[in-house]
Design a protein that fits this description.
The chain has 824 residues and is α+β, with helices and mostly antiparallel strands. The chain is 53% helix and 11% strand.
Length: 824
């Protein structure tokens, strides 16, 4: 299809033809694969609509875009104006993207992310008309899929987890690295970003007539040899030509893993490219001035069709934009390695470079007859640095000699390839090394005190990233805190000898006052709350901790019927409870844990919470135990993490933190794992397990084992505000459903309080607590949260309301799984 007027049927029939036999065979295979995957599930009529509508609208969108862009991006649109589009690629792209509406959330997002990344890359860098048609068809299919299934399409959900943010930024960096290579290897690439191949790579197009004329002049023998070398460069020469893109791809893998070193490396490369882009832009603007001769290099781009300054300047701003993005996203990349790792890496890289340099010198002398002109030791020695850079990258200065024989070419090209391949392996090894647990100054000292002294059931959370540490004058007590907008927000009680806790409370308060901060103790038990109240502090209950004593635990009687049913059903399904740690778990298990986590996060409408709610990053701790529900096919159905609770050097209990279940897995997996863990810990001699706390949720005061707070020190109005907030946040995060789920285990309820020195500081404290739990929330997400809070939910039937707390895996009226998430 190359024109529509008078041939409107070409919008449909273009998808039924191909340019040659190979295209017919490939297209038939694609149609068969996509049709087999989706036609039976969607139905014939829906599948036909999912294919034809995106085909038609994709072509129309591409033509409309060209008509609008012709005035501002003339070069690109002129290149595509005569292109022909044939084949079923748009048909099947649209059908595939429509079919993703039927996929589970995680796979739906994965397929859409990969497909759109590929199509956008081709459209921006290759820039063919077919690329635009496929991109338009993909967008149409994505919107059409939910409509065909009777749902409204949902638009752009914000990033809701640290891991997801890392993956997206890594993908952007990877696309920015691959795109210029695609443009450099694609004949007649005319995409709006194809000019970046001159910035990212050293793949230069060669004109045969120009090369012939160059080599006909004896005075330009060196230039002729250099051009011939690049023309005949094999895999080694091609690798060295795309070296910057290779390095960015390598660092993109580190960004995906959250590595700080990868972030710094990617930022340095983007900043260097930004400087080169600035020089290029300055040259473009200077050349555009009247009576100005063409700048060398710019003239080459003009000869290839980049004549308009805007078509050059805008693409060259991409590395600047990526640099800004990396700076903004710096908090996502905090994973470090043990001290000395990168010192050893630098030493290893230097050693490899020195050995290869010496080998090149000796081998070059032995093969000197294969070079033109024949080099001596001084020439070979001076040429060593260039062997580790792309061909001709040193300011386009021609080398002093060129290889002619096969052995000389292999030596000339191979040294750089071996060096960078070895460097890549060494860097990847650092990315795979376990993360540094001691993430902050004083963390190792705090962890030692935590293991040898006494804290609360939540004290292990003080070892998580984001906390700073204050130590008492005796050096035996520490308090974990984070300063947010002038509020020193602590996590739990002072950790250390119990007799020094009250003194440490007063000393830390003075320390904060001296720093100009307002202290706020968060998630502390009743005894510290009583001490603070005696000093004139205010308090409010913010959570309800559920503790399960193990001394008399048996899971017998009618009240534990659901728990016994879960364990019996697990046995019938041959699902077992398996203990492990993140560091020792097989890769297949870790991949499934990540898949379960990302699936849960993808289903949420709001960002993943932090502070007292652990995520994937907090699992990577050798002292944290993981309990998995695994079947005979090694499929993970659910996962729990348990944090140790030390008392004077002995583990006396464990606290539940991370708690997630596969949506299509064993429904009672969480109940089964908690019961299995309780029985195992009882056999190990532990005294209790804590099912952790449910924020903004509480049970009836009559059910508590401690009296409800009373007196002038309680903020009655604040209590009512928190009750209202908990009720309105229930459809979003389901904290009350979580507390109701934990009631199945008949726990003891322990209130957790927030302590504050002055009522006037409550607005600032509320802001600090919100930012601690939701550090990445933006304005749009905040507005979405407010809308969901004030949206009136549908009233469930009475029977459903009565069974909510009892049914394994039950969902509340808004569809949220009551226990497929965090504790805190």
């Amino acid at each position: 299809m190359n024109s529509v007027p008078g041939h409107w049927w070409a919008l449909l029939t273009s998808g039924l033809w191909a340019q040659n036999l190979a295209a017919y065979l490939l297209g038939s295979a694609v149609v068969f694969s996509v049709g087999l995957a989706f036609e039976r599930r969607m139905g014939s009529l829906r599948f036909a609509a999912a294919a034809l509508v995106p085909q038609i609208l994709g072509i129309a969108a591409a033509l409309g875009f060209l008509a609008v862009a012709r005035q501002t991006m003339g070069t690109w649109t002129q290149e595509m104006s005569g292109h022909v589009f044939l084949g079923p690629s748009a048909l099947m792209t649209g059908a595939t993207m429509a079919g993703t509406a039927m996929m589970p959330t995680l796979w739906r997002r994965r397929v859409r992310l990969v497909v759109f990344a590929l199509l956008i890359l081709l459209a921006l860098y290759s820039g063919g008309f077919a690329d635009l048609v496929r991109l338009g068809a993909a967008g149409t299919g994505t919107l059409l899929g939910p409509v065909l299934l009777g749902r409204r399409p949902r638009f752009g959900r914000p990033v809701s987890s640290r891991h997801e943010g890392r993956v997206l930024i890594a993908l952007l960096v990877a696309v920015s690295a691959i795109g210029p290579v695609v443009a450099g290897l694609t004949p007649h690439a005319a995409g709006p970003l194809s000019v970046l191949r001159f910035l990212f790579t050293n793949i230069q197009p060669l004109d045969p007539e120009t090369l012939q004329g160059l080599c006909a002049d004896p005075r330009q023998a060196k230039e002729c040899a250099a051009a011939q070398l690049q023309l005949r460069a094999g895999a080694g020469g091609l690798f060295m030509a795309i070296l910057p893109s290779f390095l960015l791809l390598l660092l993109a893998d580190g960004l995906r893993r959250g590595r700080r070193f990868a972030w710094a490396g990617a930022l340095l490369i983007q900043l260097a490219l930004s400087v080169l882009a600035g020089i290029t832009i300055a040259g473009v603007l200077y050349q555009a001035a009247p009576d100005t001769a063409a700048v060398e290099g710019i003239a080459t781009m003009e000869a290839l069709g980049y004549s308009h300054p805007v078509s050059l300047v805008l693409p060259l701003l991409l590395p600047v934009a990526l640099s800004i993005l990396l700076l903004i996203a710096r908090p996502l990349f905090q994973v470090a390695v043990p001290p000395g790792a990168y010192t050893r890496l630098a030493s290893q890289v230097f050693t490899v470079g020195a050995v290869l340099g010496a080998f090149y010198l000796l081998a070059g002398l032995a093969l000197s007859g294969g070079f033109t002109p024949v080099p001596g030791a001084a020439e070979l020695l001076a040429d060593i640095p260039d062997r580790f850079l792309p061909l001709g990258y040193m300011l386009d200065v021609s080398p002093a000699f060129f290889p002619q024989s096969t052995a000389a070419v292999l030596l000339y090209e191979g040294i750089g390839v071996i060096f960078w391949a070895t460097t890549a392996v060494l860097v990847l090894k650092t990315f795979l090394r376990p993360a540094l647990i001691q993430h902050h100054a004083g963390a190792a000292r705090a962890r030692e005190i935590l293991k040898t002294q006494e804290g609360s059931n939540l004290s292990w959370m003080t070892t998580w990233p984001g906390n700073s540490y204050w130590f008492s004058s005796t050096g035996e007590v520490f308090i974990a805190y984070r300063v947010i907008a002038g509020i020193a927000l602590t996590l739990g009680v002072p950790v250390g000898p119990g007799s020094q806790g009250k003194a440490a409370f007063v000393e830390f308060t003075r320390f904060c006052t001296g720093q100009g901060w307002t202290p706020c103790f968060y998630s502390v038990p009743l005894d510290l709350r009583d001490h603070a109240v005696s000093l004139g502090w205010g308090s409010v209950q913010v959570a309800q901790e559920t503790v399960l004593p193990l001394d008399s635990l048996s899971f017998r009687g009618k009240k534990f019927q659901d728990i016994r049913t879960a364990m019996n059903n697990a046995a019938k399904a041959r699902i077992r409870a398996e203990w492990t740690t993140y560091a020792t778990a097989p890769f297949s298990v870790l991949a499934q844990i990540q898949e379960i986590s990302e699936e849960w996060v993808a289903d949420q409408k709001m960002p993943e919470m932090g502070f007292t709610l652990g995520g994937l990053d907090e699992l990577n701790d050798p002292d944290v135990r993981l309990l998995l529900a695994i079947d005979g096919q090694h499929r993970v159905h659910a996962v729990l993490s348990w944090l140790p609770v030390y008392r004077n050097g002995i583990i006396q209990g464990w606290t539940l933190d991370y708690m997630r279940r596969r949506s299509t897995g064993f429904r009672a997996g969480i109940e089964f794992l908690i019961a299995s863990a309780a029985l195992r810990f009882k056999d190990e001699g532990c005294q209790f397990i804590s099912l952790s706390g449910a924020p903004l949720a509480r049970v009836n005061p009559d059910e508590l084992h401690h009296p409800a707070p009373s007196g002038p020190e309680t903020a009655g109005g604040l209590d009512r505000l928190l009750d209202w907030l908990g009720a309105n946040l229930e459809p979003v995060y389901g904290f009350r459903s979580l507390l109701a789920f934990k009631a199945k285990f008949q726990p003891r309820y322990e209130p957790l309080y927030m302590l504050y020195p002055d009522t006037a500081s409550l607005p600032a404290i509320a802001n600090a607590v919100t930012r601690a739990y939701l550090p990445t929330i933006n304005v749009g997400e905040s507005l979405a949260l407010v809308r969901r809070m004030f949206r009136r939910p549908k009233r469930p039937r009475a029977a459903a309301r009565r069974s909510l707390a009892a049914a394994p895996g039950a969902r509340d009226a808004n569809g949220h799984n009551g226990h497929n998430g965090h504790n805190g």
